[in-house]
Design brief:
This protein is mainly α and 181 residues long. It has 2 domains: 48 residues, Arc Repressor Mutant, subunit A, CATH 1.10.10.60; 119 residues. Helices cover 67% and strands 0% of the residues. Helix 1 crosses helix 6 and helix 4 crosses helix 6. It is elongated, with a radius of gyration of 19 Å. It starts with 8 loop residues before the first helix and ends with a helix.
Length: 181
């Protein structure tokens, strides 16, 4: 009778995600992952041809984690792009290593930043539609300007250069929307 496989892809991805969140992608190596998952490296390479394949799956898991975070966030304003910006900045603050892996990674495994932010539910498209319904003449251009501002604020939080409260963040995003409009 064949031996039962006890280490699964899910176990490996969960362990890799925990490592990513706590230590960053640089620390997700085969040996360290094996230690985290309480196994040898053999099951890793039975399931994955190489670490790059694992990183691709880990990237998908990290993007799904962001979407779940976004979906569970309480929307506090009807001003377009404010909630999506607020969520993005808070995500960078709470999960800096995951944020870096997903949004500051040159290799996005076939996804654009827009694809990741928009998600399967059309997050950005809904905001663009809201801006259009509120009278914005170029809502897509408005999103581009807002996004540069939002992304810059999120990146500043990674270096400790962003110390605004959540209330101040929301007010700043509302002001930016008004200014860019």
């Amino acid at each position: 009778m064949a031996r039962k496989e006890t280490v699964t892809k899910k176990i490996l991805l969960d362990a890799a995600f925990e490592m990513l969140d706590k230590e960053g992608i640089e620390q997700v190596t085969a040996r360290k992952l094996a230690a985290q998952a309480n196994c040898s490296t053999q099951p890793i390479f039975r399931i994955y041809e190489n670490m790059e394949q694992l990183y691709a799956d880990l990237y998908t898991k990290a993007c799904e984690f962001f979407q779940e975070f976004y979906s569970s966030f309480q929307k506090t304003t009807v001003v377009p792009f404010v909630t999506i910006g607020h969520v993005y900045i808070i995500f960078a603050q709470k999960y800096p290593n995951v944020f870096k892996f997903v949004f500051l990674n040159k290799k996005r495994y076939g996804n654009s930043m827009y694809d990741i932010i928009n998600g399967e539910t059309g997050n950005v498209q809904r905001e663009i539609q809201a801006a259009r319904s509120q009278g914005a003449t170029d809502p897509s251009g408005l999103f581009s300007r807002m996004w540069m501002f939002i992304h810059g604020a999120a990146c500043m939080s990674l270096t400790g250069d962003y110390d605004l409260s959540e209330t101040d963040t929301v007010n700043m995003l509302k002001d930016a929307y008004t200014s860019f409009r």
